Structures are given as C-alpha cells and as structure tokens.
Amino acid sequence: MKRALLIGAVETTTIAFDALTRHPDWTVGGVVTLQPELGHRHSDFTDIAAAARSRDCPVIYVDNVNRDEALDAMADVRPDYVFVMGWSQICGPRFLQRFSERVVGYHPAALPRLRGRAAIPWTILRQEPITAGSLFWIDAGTDTGAILDQQFFHVAPLETASSLYAKHMAALAIMLDRSLGALARDEAGRATQDEACATWAARRTPMDGLIDWTLPASDVSRLIRASGRPYPGAFTRLKGADLHIWAASVDDAERHLARPGQVIARTDDSFTVMCGNRTGLVATDWSGPEKPPRLHVLLGE
Q1: What CATH topology corresponds to 2-201?
Q2: Are 283 and 211 in contact (CB under 8 A)?
C-alpha cells in the first residue's frame, strides 16, 4: 500500500482526499493545509481539516511549505508520493529535493496551454472551445512538468467560472480514479510537454473585473462569466460604491440613444445598460444596491 501526503486548501484538495481514501492501494499519511484565518489566500478556500480528522488523518497546518519546519513535518509522514492539489505557493528547490520526482500536481488547463495563474477565467476570456484538467509531475518550472494524465472536455459557449470550475472538479475525480492504481504500481505516465504549444496566463486581481462599458455587450458578458463566483466578480461603480454583476445576457440596443454605461431600461428584477456598438447588457443578478439602478443613471463614474 502506498502512502500519500496531500497538500491543499480548496475543493480540489477535497476531491483528491476522497479519491485517495476510497482507493484500496492508498492511505493518506497526512494533510497539509492552511489555518482558516489564512483562507483569504484562496478565493475558493475549503477547510479540509474536519474531513481529515474524521478519518484519523493527521493535519499539518503551515503557511509556507518551503520552510524548514514545514519540510521536516512533511518528511516525517514518509510519503511515497506527494499530491499538491490547490496550493498557491510554488514548491521551491528544497521541497523538490526532499520529495524528488514524487510530487503530483493538478492544473485546470490543457497543459502546456495556459500555464500559470487564473486558468479558469482565462479559458473563458480566450473563448477556448476545448480544455482539459491536467495531472502532472511538479518540477522546478511553473506547470512545466511531465504529464501524468489529462481529461479533455468542451467549454460551453456561455460557460461561467462556476460551471467550468465544476467541470474541472469532475475531470479531476475521473483522472484520479484512473491514475491512482498506476501510481500505486509505480507505472504512471510521464509525457514531456510540447514547448512549441506552450502559453502562459498572468495572475488576475479583483481590479481586472472592472467593466468597460465602451466594449460590446458580448465582451462585457464574457468578463462577467469569467470573473464570477467563486472569484471576486465583475463590477462597476454607482455613486462611489461597487456594484457587482453576477449574471447577465446580451440584448439589442439599436433603438436607444445613450452613453456607454447608462441604464436604458429597468424592471423589478433586472436592468439594461448601454454598451459599445449600440448593444445592451441585461443584468439579472447583482450585489450592491438592493433595487436596480434608476433609469438613465450613468454607471462607472
């Protein structure tokens, strides 16, 4: 039986924990995670400690996996393999030296495409028709290690961050069920990534969700879908306060004369904003004001 050390603090960590504890060839020797008060590091933080303790699995709280005390605590678990599933820090040289060629990571993109950060929002913003979840062997680069397994699937035309996130969770579960047996037999694949196909995705911040109303409504809608839950969301300004828009559709605004960002229609449960190219965005889910903004108000100032 193989012994796993699991590192993470998001839903992918829970998926991996469930797969490992179900598998007859694996035992989880320890779970490394964040204290709940540090959960703000991840927009999709999940507290896995209770689930681990319910299985009599030791919980190791660390704020940096590369520190000496963290490395010593993890080495004491004596893992055959380390699974890094949902951890924002890079595994540094000393970490990789300690667990050489035994560290498995997960990335929500079809590596070598979209290496780096915020792969789910970038997948939607780039209008990728197909993506994949990737299990790979973590090396000294950023998402550059050999591929262990991939699960490909289609991206829907109106995919949202939350729906794409759910697809990635399902893909991860499939890959783990498919790969854990081979890992236990030390027969897992190591396919070199094709550098000619590599792309890199930059980190996104909450300010990247700021809506530019001069863009066509289709572009604004795409930003809303890419930035939505579990991420900070797309937003505009109304009377000095943030107004987040979580769901919207595109409408024709040819018959309206208004400035970009101006509210051109409203109901009790929606409001329509003028966008570029005389298109309209119908917001149906938002946070900020309890009621829709008043007619003709200018958003974004």
Answers
A1: Rossmann fold (3.40.50)
A2: no
C-alpha pair distances (Å), 161 with each of 182, 227, 246: 32, 7, 10
**Gap between the Cα atoms of 229 and 232, Å rounded:** 7
Tokens at 279, concatenated: 């298109």
3-state helix, strand, coil in the chain (%, to 5): 30, 30, 40
How much is the pTM?
Answer: 0.93
Calculate the dihedral angle through the C-alpha atoms of 202, 10, 113, 204, rounding to the nearest 10 degrees. -20
Rounded CA-CA distance 9/15 in Å is: 11
Name 60's bridge partners.
Answer: 32
- In angstroms and rounded to an integer, the radius of gyration of the C-alpha atoms of the chain is 22
The CATH T-level fold of domain 206-287 is: Methionyl-tRNA Fmet Formyltransferase; Chain A, domain 2 (3.10.25)
Q: How many CB atoms lie within 10 A of CB 43?
A: 14
The secondary structure of residue 276, as a DSSP letter, is: B
Q: Give mean pLDDT, residues 8-15.
A: 94
pLDDT tens digits, one per residue of 115-127: 999 999 999 999 9
Treating both helix axes as pointing N-terminal to C-terminal, what angle do 11-22 and 161-184 enclose, rounded to 10 degrees?
A: 30
In 181-240, at which residue ranges do the beta strands (DSSP E only) sit?
Answer: 200-201, 234-238
CA 223 vs. chain centroid, Å, equals 15
